[in-house]
Amino acid sequence: MVAQPDSDVLWARALTHAHNGSPALRGVSIGVREGEILAVSGPRGSGKTTLLRCLSGQFRPQEGEVWFNSTPVHTMAPLIRERLRRDRFGWIDPEPVLVPELTAWENAALPLMLRGAGRRAAKKAALEWLERLDIGAGARKRPHALLHSERQRVVVARALAGTPTVLFADEPTAPLHRAERAHVLRTLATAARSHGITVVLATHDADTAELADRTVTLLDGRQVNTIHLPHASEAEGRTACSLSV
Ligand SMILES: Nc1ncnc2c1ncn2[C@@H]1O[C@H](COP(=O)(O)OP(=O)(O)OP(=O)(O)O)[C@@H](O)[C@H]1O
User: Fold this and answer.
1) With pLDDT > 90 as the criterion, what percentage of the chain qualifies?
2) What is the spatial distance between Cα 235 and Cα 214, in angstroms, rounded to a whole number?
3) Residue 3 falls inside a structural domain
4) Boundaries of each ABC transporter domain copy (predicted)?
5) Which residues pair with 23 in a beta bridge?
6) Which residue of 56, 105, 191, 192 has the smallest Cβ count within 10 Å?
7) Number of domains in the chain
8) Residue nearest to atom 4 of ligand 1 (CA)
9) DSSP state at residue 78
10) Strand order in the sheet with 89-92
């Protein structure tokens, strides 16, 4: 067994996973550094969602290892894995899935309340995030009274309100229009950087990947390259590209 590098909050080796015998990941190895925004790009069906689900403990990979902060996730008992996901991970789906009986702020506050936060504190945090995502006016509405794009903003607020250690975002802005997409992504990236949240972002959109510190590309379940993009604050024009086929 190879040790997880200290700088990586999340680390996976030789992940292999198939759906009903159909291969989705074929030996992907990946390290995610603390506070990093990592884009996982690739065409439809290349294995992005399967990789995020393996890294976040939703799927147990058929082969390979996943480590979070030096703890093996791939061998964890289901209940411990559930607790890890609830307490340390956030998840954004491409489609907004909300509890229909709850208002927008109650939905956004839910992860905090499930972790034992008081209703008042959870409400305050949820309202702050809804404001930041320009959906404060809809805070008391139920999901059916919100537009599809507004519901997705609530989902993003819910994921950020819990300040997870790692946020997994699977095509998080897919239901949004182009202008909205840029705003939500900027909010997500700014929030992640200011709160030290590590983000693993699946996308096949170049604009989305541009926000990331680094991009890992999948093709047919295999990693094909890694591109390091500099932060705006870093020296202009400095880029690096490495092949790991
Ligand atoms: N539940 C499933 N049952 C059967 N096959 C599946 C299932 N989920 C994914 N697959 C297959 O596994 C492969 C990888 O799918 P995955 O969703 O991980 O790719 P993706 O890059 O996220 O695609 P997309 O961009 O369309 O979401 C594809 O061939 C897909 O058809």
Assistant:
1) 72
2) 16
3) no
4) 10-245
5) 18
6) 191
7) 1
8) 19
9) H
10) 89-92, 166-170, 198-203, 37-41, 214-219, 222-228, 240-243
Ligand 1: list residues with CB < 6 Å.
19-20, 22, 24, 42, 44-50, 202, 204
Q: Residues of the chain with pLDDT > 70: what percent?
A: 89
Taking all residues of the chain, what is their mean pLDDT, rounded to a whole number?
88
How far is residue 214 from each of residues 31, 43, 211, measured CA to CA in Å? 11, 17, 9
**186 domain-assigned:** yes
Q: Which amino acid is at 223?
A: Q
Instruction: Say which CATH number the domain at 163 has.
Output: 3.40.50.300
Partnered with residue 31 across adjacent β-strands are: 11
Q: Which domain holds residue 226?
A: 8-243
Instruction: Give the CA count within 13 Å in the CB-facing half-sphere of 132.
Output: 21
For ligand 1, the distance from its centroid to the CA atom of residue 29, given in whole angstroms, is: 18
- Classified as helix, coil or strand, 128 is helix
For the whole model, what pTM was predicted?
A: 0.88
Mutate to test the pocket of ligand 1, among 25, 46, 56 (most ligand atoms within 8 A of CB): 46
Residue 2 lies in a domain: no
Q: How far apart are CA 97 and CA 162, in angstroms?
A: 17
pLDDT in tens, 28-67: 999 999 999 999 999 999 999 999 999 999 999 999 999 9
pLDDT tens column, 183-202 = 888 888 998 999 999 999 99
State the Cα–Cα distance between residues 45 and 80, nearest whole angstrom.
30
Given pLDDT bands bounded at 50, 70 and 90, which one contains residue 235? very low
Other residues' Cβ atoms within 10 Å of the Cβ of residue 17: 21
Evaluate whether residue 1 is within a structural domain.
Answer: no
